[in-house]
Each structure stands twice: as C-alpha cells, then as structure tokens.
Amino acid sequence: MTELSKYRNIGIFAHVDAGKTTTTERILKLTGRIHKAGETHDGESTTDFMEQEAERGITIQSAAVSCFWKEHRFNVIDTPGHVDFTVEVYRSLKVLDGGIGVFCGSGGVEPQSETNWRYANDSEVARIIFVNKLDRIGADFLRVVQQTRDVLAANPIIMVLPIGAEDQFKGVVDLLTRKAYIWDNSGDPEAYTIEDVPADMVDQVEEYREMLVESAVEQDDDLMEAYMEGNEPSIDELKRCIRKGTRTMALFPTYCGSAFKNKGMQLILDAVVDYLPNPMEVDPQPLTDEEGNETGEFAIVDPDQPFKALAFKVMDDRFGALTFVRIYSGRLKKGDTILNSFTGKTERIGRMVEMHADERNELDSAQAGDIIAIVGMKNVQTGHTLCDVKHPCTLEAMVFPEPVISIAVAPKDKNGSEKMGTAIGKMIAEDPTFRVETDIDSGETILKGMGELHLDIKVDILKRTYGVELIVGEPQVAYRETITAEVEDSYTHKKQSGGSGQYGKIDYKIRPGEQNTGFVFKSSVVGGNVPKEFWPAIEKGFGSMMNTGTIAGFPVLDVEFDLIDGAFHAVDSSAIAFEIAAKGAFRQSIAKAKPQLLEPVMKVDVFTPEDHVGDVIGDLNRRRGMIKDQIAGVTGVRIKADVPLSEMFGYIGSLRTMTSGRGQFSMEFSHYSPCPNNISEKVVAQVAERKAAEAKK
Length: 697
Known about the structure:
Layout: E1 7-13, H1 20-30, H2 51-56, E2 63-69, E3 72-78, H3 86-95, E4 98-104, H4 111-122, E5 126-132, H5 141-152, E6 156-158, E7 160-163, E8 171-174, E9 179-183, E10 192-196, H6 202-217, H7 221-228, H8 235-247, E11 252-256, H9 265-275, E12 285-288, E13 294-299, E14 308-317, E15 320-329, E16 331-333, E17 337-340, E18 345-348, E19 351-356, E20 359-363, E21 365-367, E22 371-375, E23 385-388, E24 405-411, H10 416-430, E25 435-438, E26 445-449, H11 452-464, E27 470-472, E28 476-477, E29 480-483, E30 487-495, E31 502-512, E32 519-523, H12 535-544, E33 559-567, H13 575-589, E34 595-608, H14 613-622, E35 626-632, E36 637-644, H15 651-658, E37 664-674, H16 677-696
Parallel strand pairs: 1-3, 1-4, 4-5, 5-11, 6-11, 32-33
Antiparallel strand pairs: 2-3, 7-8, 8-9, 9-10, 12-13, 14-15, 14-23, 15-22, 16-21, 17-18, 17-23, 19-20, 19-22, 24-26, 24-27, 24-28, 25-26, 29-34, 30-31, 31-33, 34-36, 34-37, 35-36
Helix pairs in contact: 6-8, 12-13
C-alpha cells in the first residue's frame, strides 16, 4: 500500500477541445501506464472508451485511471468539457483533492472552462494551470495567463516560460531552477535536453523569476522579511511556500506546453507531486444528519478510523454493475459487510477493482485515500454513503440540477418495451441528471435531460449498447407555472354516506412566494378551529397538487399557502378529510390567482470571430435573447446572453452557418422567467392539441 502522503487524487478539466483527454494520455504514457498514446481525433484515447466518445472526439463520462510517478500514486479522472455533461465534472470534483485546469493556448479561457473553474472553487479543489497547445497558430501563453486573472479572478503564479511560439515552440524554461528543457521534434516525451537559459531570454527569465519569488514568499512572513533584507530563499523554501499557497487556493502554479507534441509534460507531473495536496491535507468531508444538515463531525482521512466512503458514480458495463467509490477513512477488504446509510441495508463486498479506464485490476483491499470500483453492488446510487455497520454516518450529499428539456420516445416494435425499461433503469442509476417518466394521459415514455446533445447521446446508447430502436418525438421544453396575485378563499369537504362521514373546512390565503422557494406552508390559525394534528395533512394535500398546474398542466413553482381558519367535526374530521379539502382548495383557487406560464432561460456563452459579431447578436435578439456582455479577445469575441431555451433548438447549426463553422457556444440553465402572452398561448394550444391527438388514439 502506498502511504497516504504519496497519494494524489486529481481531476483534469477544461472547455471542450482544450486537450484534457490528450493531456491524460500523455500522463499515462509518461508514467508507463500505456505504451502507445492514443489520439482523440483517431478515436483511440484510453479514457474515451465509449463508442460515442470515440466517434465524436469528445468525453461524455468521467473515466478513472491509476498510475505512478516518482513513487507517488496518481488517481486521475478525465472529465467531459461539454456543458451537457457537467454533472460528471461536478461529481468528480466532489471526491478529488486537486486538479489540473487545462486551457487552450490560442482559445484561452473559454465558456466551459469558466463553469468548471466555478465548480472547482465551490468544491475548494486546489489546482495547477496548464496552458496547452502552445504549438498552435495564435497561441500566446502570457495572454491566457492574463485571461485567468481577468475572467476567472484567479491568481496564477508563472512557473515556466515558453521557448518559441506557434510552430517554433520547442520547450520551456523552469523559472525555479533557471534551466531550459528543450524537446526535439520526434514526438518522444523523453527526447529532451536540459540546457542553460537561451541568451535572448535571460532578462525575461530574471524578471518573471522575481515575480514568482515575491508571490511565493507572501505565504511565509519570516521568509518575506528575510527576502526584503536581501536574502534569496532556497528552491525548497520556495516550493514549500508555493505548496501552501496552492493548497489554500491563494495561488495557482501555471505551466505551459503541448500535450499533443509531448512537450512540457514532465514538469506538470512534478508539479502535481510538489504542489497539489495529499488526501490528509484537504479539509475533511462534513458528516450530515438525515435531513442533510451538518452535524459538526467530519470524515477524517485516516486508515485507522471506522470505514467511510462516498459512491460518486454508478456505471453498467460489459462486466456488470460498477460502483465508483472514494474512501475517506478506514480500510475495506474483500468479503467485508458494509452499510449503505441511505437505504439502511447492508451489502457484502464481493469484488473490488482498480480501474484503468475500461480495464480492471483485481484488489483484495483498499484504504483511506483510494478511488476504487466495487463490482455488483445492489441499490447503491450516486451520492450514497457507505460506512462501517457499527458506526453509521452520512457524508454530505451531492445536489444535481433539474433537467430542462424532454423528448417522448417509443420502441419501434413491441418486443423493445421490456428491453427499453431495463436499459433506462440502468442509465438512470448511472446519470442523476437523466430522468424518465410516463405520461399518464398518453402512456408515452418521456426522457428528460440537460440539453439536446445529452438526450441525443442517451438515445444513441439505447440503440447501440442495448439494441433498442426508438421512435423519437420533438424536444419539449420543461415549462413551469406560478401565480401572480393573492387570493383569500375557503373550501369545505363534506361527505356523508352511512357510518362515519368526512368533514374538513379550511380558510386560507395563497400568494406568490419568493423565487426558488417552491411550496411554503404557513399556519396562522388561532385557537383550535383546525387542530394542529391536521396541519400536516393540509400541507401534504396542497403540496401534492403542485405537480400539475391549471394553465397547461406543468408543475407549479413558488406558492405560499397560509392557513388562517377553518372548522372540524369531532367525529367526522380526519387527516384524510383535510387532505382532500386541501386538494380541492388548490383546484378552486389557483385558477383565481392569475396563473402565469414560466419558461426556462439559459445562460448562453457564444464565441465568434470578430467579423460575425453583428450577425450573432442580431440572431440572439431574434431569439428573444438579452445580451449581457461582450468580451473582445485576440481570436474573437465572447458574447454572453440570457436566452429562452425554446428558442435555442438547433442553434449550433445556425451558428456554424453564420460564422463559417468557426463559432462555438455553451449554455446552462439560469432561471425561470414569465412567458410573453403570445408564447404562452402557443404552448397552451400545443398541449391541448397533443392531448386531443392522444385521446383519439
């Protein structure tokens, strides 16, 4: 077993096409994990092992690999860059101790890098920065470093300077040692020489080294004082300061190179060892109660503590169900019985494996700090806590965004129904942002996800992996409803039919609630007109109706219900009578409270070459977009806007046409906003048409 101080659990994350997967390949090649590095554009990379990933040249699901560098064990997770799969980034960051943020040398800080950086900040994950693709036309290391300051509000500390640029890029100068690493053009990562700093770079190297030293000594008052008095700190002292600053996210060591051309990768691996924290140096995970509130206790990373682990990913592959687990404390052996604190059920550990993308190495035991996969666990989902049977506990859960887009699907033949049900069940367990429901009126299966690409990939997986051919309907937007006026009303439920009857009377107010509060129940009943034991039934009754609004049957958001009075019968009143009264109250009063349709609005980030800015802005305006910001860069302009999701279907095709294939965009859910009347009428008419068509069937 590797000692904990030599563990590095790291993730690699960035915008689409910044070179994350290629960087991972080079790390594996250099650490001896693979002998030939596969290329993403050839569909041969190790971590992109799904057919859909190999074909599209993108990463869809995070992949875990383990390797060794200078006696340190790296557990590396390569994450997707596309916004539809950010849940993979989020859940990976949850279990990592450090990361490498990869930025394109010419593209710079792109939309999705910003989102991933924000996630990493939220998860308090220490990072080093790698500016990749310095051999590309338009690559500019110092410009990208400045962008990380301006756009990400980061504090990068430059550790190397590039030698040459674009097609003349041949190596880097390590500012700490004042040594130049120069690679030949063979593509062999080991084919480099260590030389003195090129004569024309000596002044620049001294200038940037001074800046590096000044940033580093800020982490240590004594060293800073000595430095002010003219005493130069040693390299080991500087490394200690940089490590401290990296761990607290006060600074981010910044490197550059070309992963594709195998230049600069060794220094990245050394930086992971030197500056990123081991599992014991990271703030321990908080424990929570059943409601998700922190208890004040923590999962201390220690092999001698009781076993605590988080299941952060569930995957079904050709060998069976795999549960990816990050062990926070204790040890786990084959044959152990552990508790799933969410379900309250115990499970026996049959097989444990160390993952190398889609290959596995069998393990007999694992300890705190390890990221492993357990084979054949039942009823375990993403975010569940696994723990010692004698020491039950719950780790802080994961919160996933709600889907914003849906499609109706049906199998092409009757035999496909059962296959589809089984396959979708497995896919839901794997991806918490993928949901499915059955339309009560039509019996159709509705798939819900984070975007067009997300659902497109899911349909493709159903077809190829599970052999289910589907008929796919048009994408549907996840509209919502709310109310805009306060209504005071009364409702009586009375039923008398031999024996004991049912009676419940409630007087209440409903009013628009604060944004994002959902359903809020209050009671200002004075006296015993509605006994307290019936209040939960009233709350349950009204709350259960919030799933179906009165305009077009969409879920209702942000309503406050205030119980002000009522009446009960000593014999006939019961919880069920008051629950039914509350349901009747919803049907009676929501329609009076000026209901309004809400539509999901997306935060859209578009990159376009400068000569197409006018066309892109005009098109976003036509799509009812609200332009928020324009940021000019060297290679083009980024336009930030809020645009209704319903207007964004097929946008990538329009953008490519407008920008001659050079534009790109990302979008994520922002908020719900009131629908204009003409759109609202259209949606209501479409829902009515669909229901009429289903009734004819």
